[in-house]
Amino acid sequence: MRLISHPAVLLTLTAVLLACASVPFWGGTYELKVATRILCFALFVLSIDLLIGFGGMVTFGQAAFFGLGAYALFFLSPEYEAGSILVAGLGAMALGALAALLTGLVVVRTKGVYFIMVTLAFAQMGFALFHDTDIANGSDGAFVFVKPALTVAGVTLIDFESRTDLHFTVLAVVVIALAKLVVLIRSPFGEALQGVKTDDRRMRALGYNPYLIRLAAFTMAGALAGLAGFLFASIDGYVSPELLGWQLSGQGIVMAVLGGLGSLGGAVFGAASLVLLEEVLKDQSLVGGFIAEHWHIPLGLIIVGIVLAFRGGIAGALSRLGGTLGGMGGGRP
Amino acid sequence: MSLRISGLTKRFGGLTAVSDVSVTVEEGTIHAVIGPNGAGKTTLLNMLAGDLVPSAGSVAWRDEDITKLSASARVGRGIGRTYQRTALFTDKTVIMNVAMGELAETGGWRFLRPALDRPGLRGKALAALDRVGLAGMAEARAGVLSHGARRRVELAMVLIADPALLLLDEPLAGLGPDESRQVIEVIRALAPAHTVVLIEHDMDAIFSLSHALTVMDDGRMIATGTPKDVREDPAVRAAYLGEGPSVWGEEVP
Ligand SMILES: Nc1ncnc2c1ncn2[C@@H]1O[C@H](COP(=O)(O)OP(=O)(O)OP(=O)(O)O)[C@@H](O)[C@H]1O
Ligand SMILES: [Mg+2]
C-alpha cells in the first residue's frame, strides 16, 4: 500500500515510462514492438496486481480476459476497412468485464488453492472455446487485416496502422490506468478490498459484503485485462487461442511477483524486466548460441534469484533502497 | 425492548458447544457472560453477531427475529461486536482500522476520494481512538502495536459505528492495569444509552460493571440474574468451588 507512493518506486516508474516514451525517437520496428509489448503486459499485470496484491485473489486465469479482449479486436474489425479504436477498445473492456462478472459469480466464492483451480478451469474452457471450434479459424488463429483507427469528423486522429500511434496510445492508457488504480486503491472501495484480503469475517462483522466487493474487483480486473489484450492484438493484428492460455496467465503472475505485488508500479517493472530478459537471453549475438537456444533455463534461474533476493520484488527492493538512501523510512510493510 | 435469546443451541459435530440457552438482556444494561474456558461463551456471542448459524433456537432484537440475518445485516440493525482474538487489519494504519467501522455505512461503494477524506470521518475516528487512549497512535501501522493497544483499537473499531447493542468478547484480556481501568470506564459509560453483552474473566470488573450476569458451564447456562443473586446461587458455587481456588476472590461469603 505504501509502496505505491514510495519516492524510489515513483522515480523509477517515471524513468521507465519516459524510456518507453523515447523509443519511437531512436528505435527501429523491433525496439518499438518490444516496448509496446512491455506496456501491454504492464496493463495486463496491473489487472493481476489488483486481484492478487490488493484483493488476495490468486488468479491463474487472467489471460482468459486478455484473450477475449484480443478477440474483440477481431470481431469488431470490418474485413477491408479500419474499425474504430473506441468501439473495439470499449467492446474489449465490456467483453472482459462481462466474462469476469459471469465467472466471478462462482469464482469469488472460493479462496486460496481453490481460487487458483477455478480460475484456471474457467480460463481453459475459454481456451477450448477458441481452440477446438471454428470460431476465428480455431487453433490457427486469425488476422485482422486493417487495424482500427480513431476518426472524428473525417479526420483520423490515431491510426493503429502506425506503430508510433499505437505505442503512444498504449503508453497513455498505462499512465491513466496507473493513476485510476492509485485513486481506486485509496478510496473506500480500495480500503474495503484490502480489508477483505486480510480478514473477510471481520469485514462482514463490520457490515461489509466481502462477496460483492471481490466480485466488483474481479470484474474491473477483467475489463482491464480485456483492454490490455485488445491493445496487444493490435501490435501484430493477429489473435490466437494461446492468448487465453494458462502459460500467459502464469507469465502474468511471474511478472506481478517479480515487479512486486501490491505496488502497482511493480506491474511495469515486472513486465519490462521479463520481456527484456527474454529478448536478451534469446539473442545469440549477446549471449552466445548455447544460452540463446536454452534461454528458459537462465531465465528461470534469474527469476528465482530475484524473488529470493528481493522480498517484495523489484518495487520492494526499490523502497528499501530509497528508505536507506533518502531516510524516507520506507521499507515494506 | 430487549435482546431475547431463546433455546439457542450450537452443535459442532458431536460436541454441543452451546446448549439450550435462554436469556433476556434488557436494553440499556450491561449483561456479563462468564464461565470457564470452553464453556461456550464465544460461541454464544458468535450466534448473536451472526457469525455462526445456530443449530436450534432463536434470537430476537427489539422485537425482530434476527436468527436468520447475516452478520452484515445485523450491523444495519445496530449490532456491533469485538473479537476475543484481536482481528485488526495489520497493514492499515490505526486510524484507518477505526475508520473502517464507519465507512461500512456505505458498504465500501465509493471509488473516487481517499477513504479518510469523507467529511467528519477523521474527527470521528480520532474521537473514538481518544476514548480508548490511543489518539496519539493514529498514524501508526496497526501491526506494530502492543497487545494491549491492539485490544483497545479493536474496541474503538466498534465504538465509532455507535451500535445500539455491543457484543464485547473479553475486551480486558491482556490489558495492563491502567489500560484496564480506562477500558472499564469506557464500557461503564456505554449504559444506559447502549446495551452491552460482555464476556469477561476479570471478576472485579464484572461485579463493578454489570447489571445482570449469566453463568455458563459446558455449553449450558447454569444461572442468570443480578450479580448478587448469581453469587449466592448454589449451582454456581458448586461449579466454581469444585474447581479449587474461588474465582470470586476474597468476596466469597
Ligand atoms: N468452530 C468450531 N468448531 C468446533 N468446535 C468449536 C468451534 N468453536 C468452538 N468450538 C468448541 O466449542 C466449545 C466452546 O468454545 P468457546 O470458544 O465458545 O468457549 P469460550 O467459553 O469462549 O472459552 P474461552 O473462555 O476459552 O474463550 C469448546 O469446546 C470449543 O473447542
Ligand atoms: Mg471465548
Can you describe what's shown?
- The complex is a heterodimer of chains A (333) and B (253).
- By secondary structure, chain A is mainly alpha-helical.
- Chain A has one domain.
- Chain A is 72% helix and 4% strand.
- Chain A has 15 helices and four strands.
- In chain A, strands 1-4 form a two-stranded antiparallel sheet. Chain A has a two-stranded antiparallel ribbon with strand order 2-3.
- In chain A, strand 2 and strand 3 form a beta hairpin.
- In chain A, helix 3 crosses helix 9 and helix 7 packs across helix 8.
- Chain B is an alpha/beta fold.
- Chain B has two domains: 168 residues, 3-Layer(aba) Sandwich (Rossmann fold); 78 residues, no CATH class.
- Chain B is built from nine helices and ten strands.
- In chain B, strands 6-7-8-3-9-10 form a six-stranded mixed beta sheet, with helices on both faces. Chain B has a four-stranded antiparallel beta sheet with strand order 2-1-4-5, with helices on one face.
- The longest helix of chain B is centred in the C-terminal third of the chain and has 14 residues.
- Chain B is globular, with a radius of gyration of 18 Å.
- In chain B, 44% of the residues are buried.
- The complex binds adenosine-5'-triphosphate and magnesium ion (MG).
- Adenosine-5'-triphosphate binds next to strand 2 and helix 1 of chain B.
Overall, the morphology of chain B is globular
Helix content of chain A: over 70%
**Biggest contact:** A-B, 27 and 38 residues
Task: Quickly count the domains of chain B.
Answer: 2
Order of helices and strands of chain A: HHHHHEEEHHHHEHHHHHH
| Rg estimate of chain A, integer Å | 20 Å
Determine the strand fraction of chain A and express it as a percent band.
Answer: under 5%
Could you name the CATH homologous superfamily of the largest domain in chain B?
P-loop containing nucleotide triphosphate hydrolases
Please provide the ordered H/E string of secondary-structure elements of chain B. EEEHEEHEHHHEHEHEEHH
Q: What is the level 1 CATH name of the largest domain in chain B? A: Alpha Beta
